[in-house]
Design goal:
Shape of chain A: globular
CATH architecture of the largest domain in chain A: Up-down Bundle
Largest sheet of chain A: none
Radius of gyration of chain A: 21 Å
Helix content of chain A: over 70%
Strand content of chain B: under 5%
Shape of chain B: elongated
Number of strands of chain B: 0
Number of strands of chain A: 0
Structural class of chain A: mainly alpha
Order of helices and strands of chain A: HHHHHHH
CATH topology of the largest domain in chain A: Four Helix Bundle (Hemerythrin (Met), subunit A)
CATH architecture of chain B: Orthogonal Bundle
CATH superfamily of the largest domain in chain A: NADH-ubiquinone/plastoquinone oxidoreductase chain 6, subunit NuoJ
Distance between the termini of chain A: 64 Å
CATH class of the largest domain in chain A: Mainly Alpha
Structural class of chain B: mainly alpha
CATH topology of chain B: Helix Hairpins
Number of domains of chain B: 1
Oligomer: heterodimer
Chain lengths: ~170, ~100
C-alpha cells in the first residue's frame, strides 16, 4: 500500500507534466514555451527523486533546468523581439501534426497496455546501491558492468562540442 | 491504490506526443529544439521507470539516462550556436525562410 503523500505527489507531478508539455507546444509566445519546458523538466526531476534516484534528479535540475533552459532563454532573447507572437499555424499543418502525434500516442499506448499485466507490480523495495560513491566506481570501472568507455566517449564528445561551439561562434 | 509502471509511463507518452506535435508543426527553429527536448525527456523517464520497477537490482537505465542528459546538453548547445549564427546571417529563425545552406 502506497502512502497518501506519495500518491498526491505523483498526481501533482503527472498533472504538471501533461499540462505543461501540452502548453509548451501550443503557446504562441516562444519565451513562454521555454518557461513551460522548465516546469516540465522540474516535474521530471521530482519524478526521479520519488523513484529513489537522487543523483539523477540533481543532474536533471542542474543540467536541464539550470543549463539547457538558460541557454534557450539566451538564444530566444538574442533572436526575438520580446512579446512577439508567432504566426498562427496553418490548418493543414496543425491537422498533420495532430494526426502524427495522436498516431504516435495511440501506437505507444497500445503497446503499453498490451503488456499491462507485466507492468502491474508495485515498486520493489530492494534496489541497487545508487549512492554517489557506487555510481562513481561504476563510471570508472572496466569490468563487465563498467562504464569507462562511454564515459571517455562522452568526454571526447564534450571536447568536440566545445571546439565546434568556438568555431561556429567565431566571427569571420 | 498502488503506483505502478503504467501510471508513470502515461505522462511520458503524452510528453512524447507533444514533442512530436511541436516538432512537426512549429516553424521556429528554437521551438523545434524545445520539442526535441520534450521527446528526449520522455525517453529518459521511460529508461528510469523500467529500471526501477522491472530491474531494481541493476542500474543500466539510470546510467543510460545520465549519458542521455549529457549528450542532450551538448547537442542543444551546438544547435543553438548554429541557430544564432544563422540568425546573424539572415536575421531570421524561421525554417521556411531558410532554404539555402550557403549565403
Amino acid at each position: 500500500m502506497e502512502s497518501v503523500g506519495n500518491i498526491l505527489v505523483y498526481c501533482v507531478v503527472a498533472l504538471v507534466i501533461i499540462v505543461c508539455s501540452v502548453l509548451t507546444v501550443t503557446t504562441r509566445k516562444i519565451l513562454r514555451s521555454a518557461t513551460y519546458l522548465l516546469f516540465t523538466l522540474f516535474a521530471t526531476a521530482i519524478l526521479y527523486f520519488q523513484l529513489d534516484y537522487p543523483l539523477l534528479g540533481a543532474v536533471q535540475i542542474a543540467v536541464y533546468a539550470g543549463g539547457i533552459v538558460v541557454l534557450f532563454v539566451f538564444a530566444i532573447l538574442l533572436t526575438h523581439k520580446p512579446g512577439e507572437d508567432a504566426d498562427a499555424l496553418k490548418t493543414h499543418r496543425r491537422v498533420l501534426g495532430s494526426v502524427a502525434a495522436l498516431l504516435t500516442v495511440a501506437l505507444l499506448g497500445g503497446a503499453l497496455f498490451t503488456f499491462a499485466p507485466l507492468c502491474g507490480k508495485a515498486l520493489p523495495a530492494d534496489m541497487a546501491d545508487v549512492s554517489i560513491e557506487n555510481i562513481g566506481h561504476f563510471l570508472l570501472s572496466t569490468d563487465k558492468f563498467g562504464y569507462l568507455l562511454p564515459f571517455e566517449a562522452i568526454s571526447v564528445l564534450l571536447l568536440a562540442c566545445i571546439i565546434g561551439g568556438v568555431v561556429i561562434a567565431r566571427r569571420r | 491504490m498502488e503506483l505502478n509502471v503504467l501510471m508513470y509511463l502515461v505522462p511520458a507518452i503524452v510528453m512524447f506526443g507533444c514533442g512530436v506535435y511541436g516538432f512537426l508543426t512549429r516553424k521556429n527553429m528554437i521551438a523545434i529544439m524545445i520539442s526535441l527536448e520534450l521527446m528526449l525527456n520522455a525517453v529518459d523517464i521511460n529508461f528510469v521507470v523500467f529500471n526501477r520497477y522491472l530491474f531494481p537490482g541493476q542500474m543500466e537505465g539510470m546510467m543510460f539516462t545520465l549519458f542521455a542528459i549529457a549528450i542532450a546538453a551538448a547537442e542543444t548547445a551546438l544547435a543553438l550556436a548554429i541557430i544564432i549564427n544563422v540568425y546573424r546571417a539572415v536575421r531570421n529563425v524561421d525554417i521556411s525562410e531558410i532554404s539555402k545552406l550557403k549565403f
